[in-house]
Amino acid sequence: EDTRIMAEKVGMSEQAFRDMVIAVTPATDSVSEWIEVMRVGSRQGLDTAADLAKFADIWTMVEDATGESAAELANAGKALQAVGIEANKQEQALAAFGYVFEECGIQVGDFLDFIGKAAPNLNALNMSVDDAATALGVLTDRGISGRQATSELNRAIEETVKAYGDAAQAVQDLTLENEDLISQNKELTEQNS
Q1: Which residue, 99, 98, 95, 136, is CA-closest to 114?
Q2: pTM greater than the 0.70 cutoff
Q3: Alpha helix (H) ranges present in 10-128?
């Protein structure tokens, strides 16, 4: 039934949708797995056959490279939307995935979990997924790897955001104090005139 709903959503008959999935699924992959990943894409707002096929291709490619489940990765990939990477543009994160997996020894699913948790702070610092991957690489080079690296980076980002917020509040307070002094000076000048 989910296949029928997805087919209707993209404006195809259920049989035409199944035929399309079979046509785009590589011989080494499972058609049912591609349909499951496409379901995830559909739940994330994708509504064209081309976008769903591209989405499934990306996540099954990551699965092939890492051994992690494509459907689980696709679900975790929703975290990318929190940092501005929409479901139909998730290929923008492929370089970061490859880097953290190959160079940092971090599972892509763990990296996506980190992105989801750190998204508000990453956004506050205007950090991209690639920036986060690079920072994890620096930690790895210093002997901090895996989940410990993501925990340390998350802590550092939180502290930076807090310090930035404290500094911004101090500037705002000084600005208000300055405005008060200007207002008082203006009143005194008017009184003395």
Answers
A1: 136
A2: yes
A3: 14-24, 31-43, 49-66, 70-76, 94-102, 108-124
Contact between 83 and 128 (Cβ < 8 Å): yes
Which residues, in sequence order, are CB contacts of 97 under 8 Å at separation 6+? Answer: 62, 65, 66, 108, 111
Q: At what angle do helices 14-24 and 2-9 cross, to 10 degrees?
A: 90
Least Cα distance to 152 among 140, 166, 170 occurs for 140
User: Taking the CA of residue 116 as centre, how many other CA atoms within 13 Å lie in the half-sphere pointing to its CB?
Assistant: 12
Give exposure, 52-67, as e/b (b: 16+ Cβ within 10 Å).
bbbbbbbbbbbbeebe
Residues 132/137/143/148 CA torsion (nearest 10 deg): 30
**Residues 139, 125: Cα–Cα separation, whole Å:** 18
Burial of 181 (0-12, 13-18, 19+ CB in 10 A): exposed
Q: What is the pLDDT of residues 19-70, one digit of tens each?
A: 998 888 888 788 888 889 999 999 999 989 999 999 999 999 999 999 999 9
Tokens representing residue 174 in the block: 């000084």
The token pair at 16 is 């035409």
65, 62, 84, 57: which is closest to 73 by C-alpha? 62
